[in-house]
Amino acid sequence: xxxxxxxxxxxxxxxxxxxxxxxxxxxxxxxxxxxxxxxxxxxxxxxxxxxxxxxxxxxxxxxxxxxxxxxxxxxxxxxxxx
Length: 82
What we know:
Elements: E1 2-11, E2 30-35, E3 44-48, E4 51-55, H1 57-65, E5 69-79
């Protein structure tokens, strides 16, 4: 059995304090990371406001360290190998 963590981030109304000031170029209210490195190139499979998409490693770095999004949920998804 393989475990996968699903992370859910929500957009803050303004950038959190103590972060380098930058523009939020994503603009989504909610981003759910379904799987990291799903394509073997470092991209993450995500839902952005309910639409399926992907995030590049640079976009993931912005999501985690830009100060615009807060982690609100972490789920463990169990997968069985077939």
